[in-house]
Amino acid sequence: MTVVSPAERRLERVLRQYNSDEPVDQDYLDMYLTPPSWGLDAPVERAFASIHERLDNELEFLNQKARSGGPFAGGHFNADNSRRLLNLIDEVAELRAALEKVGKSLTVSPEYQRVLDTAKDWLVDSGGSPIPEGFAPVVLEKYDTIFGLADAAIELSEHSRVSLVPVGEGSFALVHKFVDPNYDITFARKKLKSTADDRGRRAVPS
Fold first, then answer.
1. Helices (H) and strands (E) in the chain, counts
2. Are strands 185-192 and 161-163 parallel, antiparallel or unpaired?
3. Using an 8 Å Cβ cutoff, are 32 and 145 in contact?
4. What's the angle, vertex CA 83, arms to CA 81 and CA 88, rounded to 5?
5. Which of 56, 58, 151, 193 is 20 to 30 A removed from 143 (C-alpha atoms)?
6. What's the superkingdom here (predicted)?
7. Cβ count near 105 (within 10 Å)
8. CA 20: distance to chain centroid?
C-alpha cells in the first residue's frame, strides 16, 4: 500500500480543482505536457496550463484598459476582471505553498512574477480597479511556458538538507544558490529546465 504524506494529500486537494470539466486551451496544454521521463505530473501540468491561459486573458485585457485611459490617469480595470485576477494571484500562492510542502519550488517567469507581486497593491474586488499611472504593459508569453518546477532543497553528501534560493533563469536552466553550513560558503546550482531541447541539454551538462 502506498503511504501518502499530509503534504502530498494537500497538493492532491489543490490540484483536484484543475481536473474538472472546465476546458483548457489545447495550445496551452501542449506547452506544458511533457514526456514522462521529464518528471512533471499531468495534474501539475494541467494546473500550470489553466492558470497560464487565464492569466493571459486577464493581462491582455489589462493592457488594453491601461492604453485606453478614461477617468483615471492610468485607466480603469473592470470589476469582474479585477476579481478574477485577484483569484488567480491567490491560486498561484496556494499552489506554490502546496508544492513547497512536498519539496518543490514553483518558478514563474520574471515578467509574470512582477504582476503577481505588484497588482495586489492596487486591485480591488468591488467597483473595478484604478490602474496606476505609468503602469508598464505586461509582455505576454503565449508560446512558451511561464511556470516550472525546481527542487526546494537538496541533500548534501553528509545527508544534511539545505534550502535552495532562486537566483534567476536562462533559456535552458534554472539557477539557485545555497549555503553549505559546513563551510559557510555560497554555491550556485544550475539545473536544466524540463522543457529544454537537445541544444539546451548540450549547453547545460547534467
1. 6, 9
2. unpaired
3. yes
4. 95
5. 151
6. Bacteria
7. 19
8. 20
10 Å Cβ neighbour count for 162? Answer: 15
| Residue matched to cell numbers 492532491 | 12
| Dist CA 196 CA 40 (whole Å) | 13
d(CA 53, CA 76): 22
Q: Residues 22-44: what's their mean pLDDT?
A: 76
Asked if residues 145 and 48 have their Cβ atoms less than 8 Å apart, the reply is yes
Q: How many CB atoms lie within 10 A of CB 38?
A: 12
Place of cell 521521463: 37
- Give the residue from 116, 117, 95 showing the smallest Cα distance to 48: 95
Q: What pLDDT digit, counting tens, does each position of 148-190 carry? A: 887 655 555 555 565 566 666 666 676 766 565 665 666 666 7
Instruction: Convert the pLDDT of each residue in 62-121 to its tens digit.
Output: 999 998 766 566 689 999 999 999 999 999 999 999 998 888 889 999 999 999 999 999
- 156 against 27, higher pLDDT: 27
CB-based burial, 77-94: b 16+ in 10 Å, e otherwise: beeebbbbbbebbebbee
CA separation for the pair 14, 54 (Å, rounded): 17
Tell me the mean pLDDT in the region 32-59. Answer: 82
